[in-house]
Amino acid sequence: MLSTEERAVVSTVREWVDREVKPVVADLEHADTYPEKLIEQMKELGIYGLAIPEPWGEAPVSMPCYALVTAELARGWMSLAGAMGGHTVVAKLLQSFGTREQQDRYLPRMATGELRATMALTEPGGGSDLQAMTTHAARVGDEYVINGAKTWISNARRSGLIALLCKTDPEAEPKHKGVSVLLVEHGPGLTVSRDLKKLGYKGVETCELVFDDMHVPASAVLGGEPGRGFAQMMKGLETGRIQVAARALGVGQAAFDDALRYSQERESFGKPIWQHQSIGNYLAEMATKLTAARQLILFAAEKFDAGERCDMEAGMAKLFTSEIAMEVALNAVRIHGGYGYSTEFDVERYFRDAPLMIVGEGTNEIQRNVIAAQLVKRGGLA
Ligand SMILES: Cc1cc2nc3c(=O)[nH]c(=O)nc-3n(C[C@H](O)[C@H](O)[C@H](O)COP(=O)(O)OP(=O)(O)OC[C@H]3O[C@@H](n4cnc5c(N)ncnc54)[C@H](O)[C@@H]3O)c2cc1C
């Protein structure tokens, strides 16, 4: 349950989205323009500090509130929610596992948005099988020397801090024990080599990174001790998956809102189209599934805040919400008829943005694997 203050935070963001984002989103999207002004306003609203507590930030909000803020941003433009997703995961990683020095170095500037952060897991050779990664950091004296490549890294060009998942001991068995998170800042040896062209998620950059003998201090290992990165990142991905689920919720909500409005304005056979049973049925199912998705997200978020393991719940929320967001976006296209296929209406954008949440932050096939493994481990549903 959200406190009164948290409800006010969500409604402030909702009003900002309606006032500042909705009127400009189509132009920004179609020109694929970086939303400089909106990102600056998000910083002023405190969105980059939502997950960062004192002494580095101000009062952080609960995970349910964070999820609903994310959904509001995505309701306006999924790209805006994407521009703060990885940042929050890195903020949580620093709070949970960082040394005090690492926390003091990064969190105060991350709380204001002056410093943005992203995480780099995926490699050209694969994103699902993370333990097979080849990016490698070799210990040389009191430094690590990094070589390798990452791809599909969101916000990489504008993020001053990259939480890099890499191997510090490629021979380790089991393999995950040789994986670390390195806190990397841009510098010699790191090249942002290419901005990838995308179906949706326009405006913010998604890039390839090349590490060529990049030197970082040994103190860049998250928490100071190598070999813990895989477990650290899996915990971070609980936040990431709740965030991606919330993004899908926002996109689905926007598609539903547009469809509900259009179905009352558009007439055929002498009546508003919502009165045709087929269209009414779409609306009823869209609303029902969105309501269920919202509850799944809040359930996972509450478990997270209770300090409980919630990879299964976050996985369920991400799996269900992203799949229904795709369905809702398609049905919104159907309800708009030919106009649903027009770039002058927003529904085509929802349809292009929705698949990202199916693929990103661990594909939905991987979520099913996580859920099934946890069901067996936990002996079923509690
Ligand atoms: C726009 C965008 C932004 C992104 N941002 C980031 C980012 O900021 N940071 C980052 O690290 N990554 C990012 N990613 C990468 C994303 O997380 C990966 O694309 C995703 O994890 C899948 O990895 P892959 O593309 O290598 O697919 P693969 O791992 O090659 O998978 C291909 C297919 O095989 C399936 N598959 C693979 N293994 C299994 C299995 N064991 N069981 C069942 N099915 C399986 C997959 O589900 C998928 O359908 C982003 C991706 C996109 C598109």
UniProtKB/TrEMBL annotation:
Xref: PROSITE patterns: ACYL_COA_DH_1
Cofactors: FAD
Coiled coil: none
Entry-linked InterPro entries: Acyl-CoA_DH_CS, Acyl-CoA_Oxase/DH_mid-dom, Acyl-CoA_Oxase/DH_mid-dom_sf, AcylCo_DH-like_C, AcylCo_DH/oxidase_C, AcylCoA_DH/ox_N, AcylCoA_DH/ox_N_sf, AcylCoA_DH/oxidase_NM_dom_sf
Domain of life: Bacteria
Keywords, sorted A to Z: FAD, Flavoprotein, Oxidoreductase
Domain Acyl-CoA dehydrogenase/oxidase N-terminal, first and last residues per copy: 4-114
Acyl-CoA oxidase/dehydrogenase middle domain ranges (all copies): 119-214
A GO molecular-function descriptor: flavin adenine dinucleotide binding
Domain Acyl-CoA dehydrogenase/oxidase C-terminal: 227-375
Pfam family, one: Acyl-CoA_dh_N
Family of the protein in this entry: Belongs to the acyl-CoA dehydrogenase family.
Protein name: Acyl-CoA dehydrogenase
